[in-house]
Amino acid sequence: MSNPATPPRSLAEALRARDDISLAVLLRARPDLITPVPTDLTQLATRAGTRASVLRALERLDRFALQTAEALAVAGDPASYQELLGLMAGDGGDPAVAGELPRAVAVLRDQALVWGDDDRLRLVRTAREVLAPSPQHPSPTGLGPTVREATSGMSPGRVQEIVAAAGLPSTHDPVSAVDALTGLFGHRKKMAKLLAAAPAESREVLSRLVWGPPYGQITPEPAAHLRWLLDRGLLLPTAPGTVVLPREVALHLREGRAHREPEPVPPPVEPAAAHRPQVVDATAAGQAYTTLATVEELLKDWDEGGPAVLRAGGLSVRDLKRTAVALDVPEPIAAFWVELAYAAGLLASDGEADERFAATPAYDEWLDRPPAERWAQLAEAWLTATRTSGLVGGRDAKDRALSALGPGLDRSAAPEVRHRVLTLLAALPEGTAPAADSVLARLRWERPLRGPQVGVPPRERSRAWGSEDDLRGRLARWTLSEAELLGVTGRGALSAHGRALLGAPAASGPKAASPARSAGPGDKLPVHHHHPAPGLLTPAPLSPPEQAVAAAAAGRLLAPLLPEPLDHVLLQADLTAVAPGPLRRPLADALGVLADVESKGGATVYRFTPASVRRALDAGRTASDLHAFLTEHSRTPVPQPLAYLIDDVARRHGHLRVGAASAYVRCDDDSILNEIMADKRASGLRLRRLAPTVLATQADPAALLEGLRAMGYAPAAESAEGDVLITRAHAHRTPPRTAPEPVPDGPPPPDSTLLTAAIRAIRAGDLAATTPRKSTGSSAVKGGELPRTTPAETLATMQAAVLTGDTVWIGYVNAEGTATQRVIAPVRVEGGFVTAYDHTADEVRTYPLHRVTGVAELAED
């Protein structure tokens, strides 16, 4: 840790004083800092101060930590902890603010946004610039410039006039005059006395400017109450017709507070309703079963090739409407199901010349899995996907329409928001549904900044966050509705399998920091998650392997709640069959061919029609097969009307034969052909008689079949050999496709192995760059230069280091001609090579002596 007697003079020195665990906390919170790994701590500090990195770090601060950074941006540089506490808690002192401020300062220090001891806190310069990006927003807290800044272009005589009007003695120079005026404005009792003498209209003007924006417009001849303020410096001119409220005056009027409403504690997630956990789990399980049925119905509808792919990619508006009608859901819900199947790898484009969407081979594997495992795969894909179906129907930045399955739907923040919303639900008592607005308020506290809102005053920022223009607010609302659709929640409350989907929470907080030291050879940093105070953000979402384990656990919890597939139906006299629950797959597939689905819900109703029975006969089933099938799988006797329907359609099925002439019809009963020829509906087929039992046409066989069926006949197709063709649905599949990869929101957090290696490399590079060196022989080593010694001096120094066990600094040129500097501990020198432990690479290496440009001993501490 830093020594109070020698405070760090830069961020690099502050980082140099950290231990390895503290560095690991920084690199976990800001993974962009080690992409790629910095060569030393100076480069790490430089990278931590870049605008892009600072902006990303500020966007991940909670509301109170951000307010603390904003207060430091308007405080002195450096500022003491007491000065910061005064800006945050005000003159009266807020116990809640005082209690949470150490945590907020620690967060800023951990993320290298603030450095220095408590008596010299410094906000990194880039953060100060980012938080006050424009003249319209000179301060993130609505404060104007200081008296010294506002009077920098003012004439000395005018400054003296202001000092005299304020009741202060005149001074000999403008600098002391400004100091006196600053002291007056910062003195609570004297300022109270001065303002007590102000006209009521003057105090009203100050009240309008106090919380910002601090600028106002005046006429060339201001009114008396404005002149009173201008004469005493309570308003200072910044440009013709423009005045500003000095920062010191505003702070007095604010009672010392930088913020109108400090928010040290996150708003609670309010419960909206409470249900028995068993009811929640049962409701969620029912919706999970609906999810499986809907995805199956969607892909079954596209089994022979789905809609065409647009030239720009994606699904057309017309095809999305057709899909919504087929699924009997609104279009936004249809877009969600389509995107869910795509995210799970069950749906893709086939890549053919006439490109269409179709199921992938993974869909067949998915169908063979148990229902709970199928749901777990869908839930895991939803939770981790960056594609956002809620954007479908909107416009992108170039005003192009966003379509389902098309480009432009990835939002990198989506997985984090989904995970966080479910985590907030998991923190409520079991069976409790939250109020949606309270969830949004909590998320707004945890992530108040996002992109262009940096530097916007808090009041404007707060209004914008939950609006339709804010992505995170919309993502949170979509998450609540999608979780209910998917069966992760039931009646708005998180289910037991939904909790399992999130994974087990951390068992304990962070370990105590060990004394400052560098990781030695063979050491490995502990996996150290920085856990903020209760109520703040939880650790990042699970890694892919951990998420797969959690999804499997969720599936196991869901499995007992899903209904068991049935092997029977209930046949009714009105030519319908009722399935009182989910059917086993062979039965459902066979019944789907023999009958049409009339209604769905807790029970599915199938209706038998001549067309559906003919469809089963076309698939190769005979009348006796259908009678036996229904008898086997019905818990009620086969109704007589259904038996008659099957026999009647079967008796007429195949009586007419259609082949290729382009097409022909043949029938042993020429009277039937006479009826067809006499029917006006057959005129479009352009039939002509070739023989008493044969008709021919130029239409293709498929069109002829459809035309005759529309006329009420039941023709059958036949092959060139005269055999009846059995038609079965052709399941069109795409080539093997992988599920779409999520678009990451910046570099992923490094794991423990990467952190260990990165910190060792940074420490070793910093040692090589900063350790003092002794001059060797006749050559003196200057800071930052490679050592230069003769071959004899190099050999002698290496041999001496082997005997004494010292560590030396060498300049080395590799085989590619790249010059580097390394810190090594020589172990053996022989045959023109030196074998040494390389602190920079953290391993034992052998170097040719002729490539060593020089050697220098490291100075003793």
From TrEMBL:
Residues 504-522 have a biased composition (Low complexity). This is DNA-binding protein. InterPro entries: WYL_dom, XPB/Ssl2_N. Residues 737-750 have a biased composition (Pro residues). Residues 569-691 form the Helicase XPB/Ssl2 N-terminal domain. Residues 132-153, 504-543, 731-750, 768-788 are annotated as: Disordered. It comes from Streptomyces fuscichromogenes. Residues 793-855 form the WYL domain. It comes from the Bacteria.
